[in-house]
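Let us practice reading a record.
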Amino acid sequence: MLRIGVLISGSGSNLQALIDNTLNGYIDGKIEIIVSNKESFGLKRGKKVGIESIYLEPKDFKSEEDYNRELIQIFKAKKIDLVVLAGYLKILSKEFIKEFQGRIINIHPSLIPDFCGDGFYGNRVHQAVLASGVKESGATVHFVDEGVDTGPIILQRRVKVEENDTLESLQRRVLKLEHQIIVEGVKLFSEGELKFKDKNVPIANGSINRSDCMKRALISVYDKEGIVEFAENLELLGWNIISTGGTFKLLKEAGIKAIEVYNVTGFPEILEGRVKTLNPLIHGGILYKRGDSEHEKTIRELGISSIDMVVNNLYPFEEMLKDRSSHKDMIENIDIGGPSMIRSAAKNYKDVIVITDPKDYQEIIGRLKMSGLNHNYRLNLAQKAFSYTAYYDSIIASYFNSLDDEKFPERLTLTYKKNMSLRYGENPHQSAAFYEELGSKKGTISSGRTLHGRALSFNNINDANGALKILKEFQQPTIVGVKHANPSGIGSAETIEEAFEKMYSCDRESIFGGIIASNREINLEIAEQISEIFIEIVLAPSFSKDALEILTKKKNIRLIEIDDIMNNKYDELDMKKTIGGLLLQTRDEILFKDYEIVTKRIPSEEELQDLVFSFKCVKHINSNGIVIAKNLATLGFGLGEVNRFWACEKAIERSAEGVRGSVLASDGFFPFKDSIEILGKAGVKAIIQPGGSIKDPEVIAAADKYDIAMIFTNMRHFKH
């Protein structure tokens, strides 16, 4: 007959189930001793039927060690064969566990390995279950080892978590299960059909393996950052780990008890690793609906075990693309099994945890230790997973489209990655974020390094991008001033100092609160001038040490260093969002292929240089656009007008007395001669424009009348 010792802390309802079933002979055993660490009602239950029942108060002992030694002696004196923890809310000492190794069983009010471990006891478990949103709970009988709730599982019973469950209603139903399975577990032990061996618990009518009850995680990652620590934490929480290839090797070397996928599927990796996880024993374990009787019947009949977590990130197709790898290497870095597993797990997110981002490892472990992963968090992980695979597929699609230079495919996939969240959009009531494009980002805002100042806003980024686009037109030292995405001044010169003066002289007022972009280093002389103005942002390839000392004294200025700021080679398309659609076009990267002098007067070399300069400038202002310039410096802008005549008027007005002897660029043709007449009267001496109007003969005649040289480029530069 089995000699049983019971440890309790509370009312002893599980104890009562054991008392009843030993007294009626259902269990071939006798309860010899009951010990409680509290003055509990359970002791009265034992005394009522004549069982020795002891209250062992921990505070009565000098140390924890003394308490544990006394507990061991009590049970040894009674020659106890089996110690049963029936609601004992205290951690057993290593000495006690060693003394009764393989002879201690515990009842826990959840389906281990969920909601167990240090801190999870009593109603705390039920609170965590309800907070997590899981569909099932239950009770577990397991052997006790040196971990907390980590010993081999003996039995489990499940209970459905109802939508309207309260703490009390769930606790009542789980407690009813506890009364049943604690008796069944002790009965199995009393009949000699239960033996403790490593993580397995052989039973005569089958074999219960902790892995049959434990959650299983499939880990297969290319980016192995943090994966060993994550797997170690999973193992401590009682998870079984399945793995593949290099991930499996890494985990094994770290001492983690992972098993290879082929031990699950019965098939080795084939076709140079192209096929590893594409198997019903994997995808069935991920995709079956828990709680669905037909699904559960199918997986039982086919011998498919549950997979409750998928940790996966994919072959580095994007990195290979950036490195301009060979087509053969690109093909081999198209991941097939990974996206399939991720999508399967994300589809079944209510039952399966899907992890694609190493940054989530720490939080997930924390949640598993505490209250589990609730529905909303699982949904968030699924959203991230589908975005990840969609992004991955879109990169591959873009690559294949590029093979035959297909810029406008039947189905368009755009590939962007979030660079940063922004405080708000163009206006405070608009939310916003900044995304960066796949491919080369040299010389762009995305690649810029903030040396000083706050994070950039939506308008900062948009305006800075406008300044950069203008700047990239020029090779000689140039500085661009921008306000609200429009240039306030542009200057080119032999030196960057002179270029700054030209830019600033164009409009000394509008640049206030604007952006300055330079294609040469910002030195002390320029920094001193900038420091006298309120400037939001300065963009440059570099800043001298002296310049930084001056400018960093200004709290609200942002200094952005951009390598390769003059780089202008981008394989990108220009996009304009419409309501319900998207306009797509190739980038406006050609200034003109050739030009034709259409007037009697031929422009001088100096005028020709200014004409090209001004045409580069007008290319980047809103239509209808006019730029008046002289000596490689802008004098006045007329932009965003619905009438080209008005644009000319504004440009003349803003150029003031500097207009005499200047040149002018127009982004589109002149529809009437009236614009030429006011330009001639103002003193403009040369014009560059696309031409192509039916009124061109009248426009040319007007230019000849005012002795204006005029060039046709046959290429317009509308910007709307």
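A brief commentary: The radius of gyration is 38 Å.
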